[in-house]
């Protein structure tokens, strides 16, 4: 019995806030069409007309003809003729203002924001109007933010070409590259530089935490006309049929794999799961499997199973004594 009342109380509070803001909104737009006002306020025309009818009986104590809010209608247009002193919008509460300041500061720190100047202007306006909040001890740092990210963002904003030392996890190698940046991005909590790579002669994404060194060159970034930004609406890694497919048998403790990586198929096999997924190459898959726990077994392809077994045996041989050859201990890792 309490839930409908709670919903009704919330609806009443929302309506009161809307009515208090409606008068100064209409004062600033005399003769506005009701349809346009409804779109601006995010309500239906019917709801707005009901709000206007309620305003007829609202006003100052005494509630006589000269105390109530008054308005004039001209067809579908409305004009406030007496505001009863409600001539300014509601002020934000301290909590609301602080939440808005934090959100704007976070937006200003997000790599890839197209119009940071507009965000900073809005932030300055709100902090100026909020008084004490202008000096509030609030520092916003996004996940994945770091001195390296801030250095890269500044370099990208200056529009200069960069020379980077980059670690490619898929091939387990470090290379030197000259890039012409397009933009900074934040995807899945990680920062990326999207740039034209002169070595690959294509647009590439470079993870900021894998850039070991950055040198800003004394030349502007020049991006070829054929360069096109990546579509990252589905994430950075987009599996395709031309990529190698691997099949793993995983135990309960490794089921997180199915939530963290895009899997093509997940099938129950008793207490274990058979998981199929695409990978960039088998070299990455080998390192991936070797980094997992003992509840993971390579089912296919056989080439990957052999690579995992061989590298695991080689690693164990580095620590084994002649009387303690530990090759069979890795049998659970492959099949």
Walkthrough of the structure:
With 335 residues, the chain is an alpha+beta fold. Helices cover 35% and strands 26% of the residues. It is built from nine helices and twelve strands. It has a five-stranded antiparallel sheet. A hairpin with a 2-residue loop joins strand 10 and strand 11. Helix 4 (94-109) packs antiparallel against helix 5 and helix 8 (282-290) packs across helix 9. The chain starts with a helix and ends in an 18-residue tail after the last helix.
Mean pLDDT: 76
Fraction in helix:
25-40%
Work out the radius of gyration: 31 Å
Shape: elongated
Report the portion of residues in β strands: 25-35%
Distance between the termini: 60 Å
Model regions low in confidence, pLDDT < 50 over at least 5 residues? 1-8, 329-334
Main beta-sheet annotation = 5 strands, antiparallel
Please tally the β strands and state the result.
12
What oligomeric state best describes the polypeptide chains here?
single chain
What's the tally of helices?
Answer: 9
Helix and strand sequence: HEHHEEHHHEEEEEEHEEHEH
User: If strands are numbered along the chain, what order do they take across the biggest sheet?
Assistant: 7-6-5-4-8
Provide the structure class: alpha+beta
């Amino acid at each position: 019995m309490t839930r409908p009342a709670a919903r009704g109380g919330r609806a009443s509070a929302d309506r009161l806030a809307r009515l208090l803001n409606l008068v100064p909104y209409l004062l600033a737009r005399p003769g506005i069409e009701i349809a346009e006002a409804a779109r601006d306020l995010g309500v239906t025309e019917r709801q707005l007309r009901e709000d206007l009818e309620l305003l007829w009986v609202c006003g100052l104590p005494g509630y006589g003809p000269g105390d109530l809010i008054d308005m004039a209608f001209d067809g579908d247009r409305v004009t406030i003729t007496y505001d009863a002193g409600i001539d300014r919008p509601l002020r934000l509460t301290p909590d609301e203002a602080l939440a808005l300041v934090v959100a704007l500061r976070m937006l200003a720190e997000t790599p890839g924001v197209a119009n940071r100047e507009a965000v900073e202007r809005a932030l300055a306006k709100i902090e100026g109007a909020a008084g004490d909040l202008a000096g509030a001890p609030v520092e916003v740092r996004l996940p994945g933010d770091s001195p390296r990210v801030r250095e890269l963002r500044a370099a990208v904003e200056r529009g200069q070409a960069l020379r980077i030392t980059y670690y490619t996890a898929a091939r387990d190698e470090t290379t030197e590259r000259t890039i012409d940046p397009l933009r900074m991005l934040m995807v899945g909590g990680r920062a990326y530089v999207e740039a034209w790579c002169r070595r690959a002669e294509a647009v590439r994404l470079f993870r900021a935490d894998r850039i070991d060194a950055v040198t800003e060159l004394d030349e502007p970034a020049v991006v070829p006309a054929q360069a096109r930004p990546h579509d990252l609406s589905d994430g950075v890694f987009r599996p395709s049929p031309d990529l190698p497919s691997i099949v793993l048998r995983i135990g309960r403790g490794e089921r997180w794999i199915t939530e963290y990586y895009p899997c093509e198929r997940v099938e129950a096999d008793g207490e274990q799961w058979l998981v199929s997924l695409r990978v960039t190459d088998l070299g990455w898959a080998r390192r991936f499997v070797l980094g997992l726990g003992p509840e993971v077994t390579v089912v296919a392809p056989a080439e990957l199973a052999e690579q995992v077994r061989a590298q695991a045996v080689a690693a164990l041989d580095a620590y084994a004594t002649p009387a303690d050859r530990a090759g069979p201990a890795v049998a659970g890792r492959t099949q």
